[in-house]
């Protein structure tokens, strides 16, 4: 046992003595310290990477304690959820109430009056609180809900091209070209024309500056010299202010120099150079201009709340920084500008921009990926109701966006909705009489924009895109929105007959009694029992040779009779299993010029498109709305 453990003295070489246990090896001690320091550095690097720029790993206990009590009651834990979700604040500046002149037709008269309108820009991912309950998501209700019908004479009317102080009535009558009760004045003689020119000539000049000129007769009659006179000189006029030079217009090319201001809000104490590089400026430019700014500012860092304004000259793909200014709030601190020698020197304060005062307004907090945001459907209703819109108006927006937006998808932080609608007063609250005039919706990379327009020919109100094309689909592909696809178009083995047979439609399975909606506007061609195996059948004739057929219904809706006018989304019957059917479902067929086609594959035409005079009036209405929303003044002045 002793031999196995070893009791022999240590082997020594070169006459060295055995080490004393009380002595410490300097080499061992230095190696131990270096190992400890290296381990600490590696752990620090790993910890910094885990923090990812944050100041702490966990939410403080006091922050969690300050949360609402009801938030603590739910003990269910969802993977990826947060104890306190970052909130996006809705800005009051996103709502504007404006007085707009509108024109409403009243018989032969046109009444122009001022009416309040609300212009709202809604960030749907913000923490909006709905002011009232709204209906749960139901795909059938989206299309089948009764759309509020406008009055025979629109309550809002069209936007007027000029501002009026009060209510004005206009009446248009054709100019009497055939017979008139007024006496026509005789033509002026040559002497009378000359007298008018001589008497009015004094008001056409201001000292030595010619303001305007118009030759009524041969200019040689007023010339004392026999020199040649340019007869076309008086056909044009130009009014110039003092100390103004008029240069020839320059054509715009990709190499034309353009100036732009880049506004950079500073959200934390940051070095000047880092604030520039974080905004995309190259390191060499950032370091160079930061040194000049720091010399004038007396500091190399910007404080939280500062605004950095960069003036840029863009020429083709090259950009040059020619000016930089620092603002503390709305107070100007320092400006440096590029001189003719290419050096930065102290500069004077540039003209103030509104973007400086609102630099932090348009940069709302964006939640990180994985944030538990609501569905698109809930986000639209919560935002719209909190901004003063009614449930009917919100339902109309949902219906108009249904063909382009997935309402069951999760909201993205960038999803926005802009609307322009009439309101009752300056509070911005819509009423039953309010009408929606404009919507601009952005969901992900998809943008949908449409305008309200009343057709002057038939008086119908619809919504059109910027090109005058109806936003509505011509035909829906699924008349049972909450149905389940069971069988497609083509050859298949018939479930009852037992042999291969052409299936001339699409089957949508749903419980008995599920509502069936019309695929599009049209006229009922047939509504009743079919002896060929279709059971209760309804056929609707649409425009341009299209027909839709709905079969195996348990019952046909009241009022759906041959000759009746049907609108898209209207309930026309209920799912059943009448005729040759093995279970409750809808056999839906689409017929084009007498030929049955696949409803899911055929390319369907778009909705109604405006043409001719209607299109011209729509474009005028669209331009007026765009100018109002862009805070511009309409350039069209109405003559009264």
UniProtKB/TrEMBL annotation:
CDD domains: M23_peptidase
One Pfam family it belongs to: Peptidase_M23
Cofactor(s) this protein requires: Zn(2+)
Positions of the M23ase beta-sheet core domain: 501-599
One annotated GO biological process: proteolysis
Keywords attached to this entry: Hydrolase, Membrane, Metal-binding, Metalloprotease, Protease, Transmembrane, Transmembrane helix, Zinc
GO molecular function, one term: metal ion binding
Residues forming coiled coils: none
Gene3D superfamilies: 3.10.450.350, Glucose Permease (Domain IIA) (2.70.70.10)
Regions that span the bilayer: 26-51
UniProt name for this protein: Peptidase protein, M23/M37 family
UniProt organism field: Rhizobium etli (strain ATCC 51251 / DSM 11541 / JCM 21823 / NBRC 15573 / CFN 42)
